[in-house]
Amino acid sequence: MAGRKNILVLTGAGISAESGLATFRGEGGLWEGHRIEDVCTPDALSKNRKLVHRFYDERRSDLRLAKPNAAHAALAKLERHWKSQKKGDFLLVTQNVDDLHERAGSHNLIHMHGELKSALCEDCGGRTPWQLPMGEFERCGFCKRGYLRPDIVFFGEMPYQMERIHEALMACDLFLAVGTSGAVYPASQFVMFAKDAGAVAHQFNTELADGSHRFDTCHVGEAGEMLPKFVDELIGEQPVGWNLTPEQKAAFIKEIEECGAHTTFYCSGMVEYMTNAGLDAEELSDGSMRLYDQIIKPTQPEWGEPGIYAPNVLSAAIDAHGLEITTGMLGRGFGHRDRLEKLKEVWNDRRT
Questions:
Q1: pLDDT tens profile 69-95
Q2: Active-site annotation holder among 53, 113, 202, 262
Q3: Catalytic annotation on 113?
């Protein structure tokens, strides 16, 4: 298709470091006096299984406190736009084992080094989602024979889905490396494969690394500051909803959160309604709604409680922003009609 442009993004420890997760690289890259290699090899697992499991249990615990940052959100936004506008293929390959990309809203994603929240059977190779500490000798729920280990690619093991990654590299037109020095094989070769295929390559890192000369452009600084601007420029002009000021977005989100809208029951409809209006929203797997960079948790009101039929609130808020949309939904709620009218008044006052 004419005008299609395929994107491949590689992310590394630097993007998660901005969310407070340790990289264990560089100066002082130790854990309780152990080199990282001493707790991340098959040999270490066989010799000191308890130590290896404790290391990953602590990483899993740290992950519960971390939150996606602006760079994670920017990549999720880029993927949504590329998909919705049918601009080409988009693949995010991460060297990180955390789930911050998923929590930010990324979907077409490969964890080439495995995942903290997954357990791997040493016998049958079956995988099991895993959240809690992992006992040294947990049995596999599939084969009932093998023991579980962290689903992590140890040093000396083959990264996951390399064939698919290579195919995407050969077909990509734009290659982005974010938060990675490009020093670890095989990811260190990705930029060369992409460039050989004719891709334009950009690096986002806090410093110039040994392989930075291979990129067309190097952006030096925090990814959370640089990447959102780069993505906005790459996306270009957006529907009017994307151009709301930060103050308008914050006020809109606050109103939706406080209005009593039944997101549990109407989340899908609300998201469809907002995206059709050019607003940036997404339904998440736990029933929450992402509205711009905020997560609105689902409510569970009792039937019969006063509430606002969600599209009514959106009608008022969207109309108050001056967005060109007609809905015919006003007046169909089961309560708070006076509040809806007041909402329109307040928002219209803010615009004048």
A1: 999 989 998 998 898 888 999 999 999
A2: 113
A3: yes
CB-based contacts of 111, cutoff 8 Å, min separation 6: 94, 96, 97, 160
Measuring CA to CA, how many Å separate 54 from each of 36, 40, 137, 338? 13, 12, 13, 57
Mean pLDDT of 11-27: 82
Contact at 8 Å (CB) between 251 and 343?
no
Structural contact between residues 223 and 179, judged by C-beta atoms closer than 8 angstroms: yes
Tokens of residue 47, six digits = 């010799």
Is the per-residue pLDDT at 119 higher than 50? yes
Give the mean pLDDT of 228-242: 74
CA dihedral (90, 95, 98, 100) positive or negative: negative
Q: Which two tokens stand for residue 276?
A: 């059709």
| Per-residue pLDDT, 117 | 96
Q: How far apart are CA 269 and CA 92, in angstroms?
A: 28
Cα–Cα dist 111/92, whole Å: 9
Residue 43 in tokens: 């040999």
Average pLDDT over residues 200-214: 91
Token pair of 12 as six digits: 């590394």
Using CA atoms, how far residue 15 sits from 75, 196, 207, 224, 283, in Å, is 11, 26, 13, 8, 24
pLDDT of residue 335: 42
Could you tell me the two tokens for 240? 């009017």
Query: What DSSP character marks residue 126?
Result: -
